[in-house]
Amino acid sequence: MVWNRFACCLVALSLFSAVGVGRAAVAPLTPAKKVEQGSEPAASREEFHLAMAKLLKDEGFLDKNNTFKKGTKMHRLFESYLRETLSDPVVIDFFYTSLKDNADHVTDYDAFGKALAGDYAVRGLTRLPEHDFQELLRVMNAMAGKLPERDCAGMLRPGSNFDYHWLELLPLEDAQLYLRLTKKALVAEISRSPRLPANTKEQTAVAYQALFAEMKRRLSPEKLEQFGKIWGQPEVAEDADLCWGYRVLLTGILDLPAEPRRWMLREYSNLLRPRE
For the whole model, what pTM was predicted? Predict the structure, then answer.
């Protein structure tokens, strides 16, 4: 089915990179200290917790790892995100165990921590509750509507990096929600929270039928054909077309009636689900 094919493609292109929790984008930073090969990050788990607590009292460390200009609302919001993430015992234990287990072959723990947390946050998207997953799509749709077409399309293409400064385009409450869901996805993956259940075949069929009907309702035959071509070969689509197609798709999903929308969200989550 062409709709199944296009949905798989969309998930891979948009949520893995556009959501901003790619390998280099999401990670709460590990202590900015180079660790020599073969050494351990701390003598004990307790000392590691104490070291992290000490860093969170260091304004220089927090400012250095803050994306935003000091004194702005986003700077304060991002600092709160850093403090909340790096003070979570689940996150600290995860970093301690991971760093210790890899001490024999990792020399740059800062880069290692970023990559590890980014990977876990991406994987954790499929562990978000349905409402959170829906809210994530809503925020990404709002962001896509404010970005220049080049950036909007760029965040959907393979190998792209999310720019945290894009959050400044959003209302503060949406930027805060984005960061909260980022952290929640990371913790959910670390904690192995349950993933969303898969649809039945009948639910999946109904979801795609409802989505197709919604696209037909809102698009002219010419635009519907254009939409199909974009997601048939998104890699060759022009920036303006790809960004338009992304927004039309997300708006269509979010505007579905409650039950088909719920099943469509489950379908997306299932398509994102990593191999165990």
Answer: 0.80
List, run by run, the mean pLDDT of 10-residue segments along the chain (276 residues).
Answer: 37 34 36 42 78 91 91 94 93 89 77 81 89 94 95 85 89 96 95 92 95 95 95 92 95 95 89 71
Of 235, 223, 179, 256, nearest to 12 by C-alpha is 235
| Cβ-Cβ contacts under 8 Å for 107 (sequence gap 6 or more) | 34, 35, 36, 37
CA 133 to chain centre: 10
- Residue-wise over 168-200: b if at least 16 C-beta within 10 A, else e? bebeeebbbbbbebbbbbbbbbbeeeebbeebe
Residues 6 or more apart whose Cβ sits within 8 Å of residue 173: none
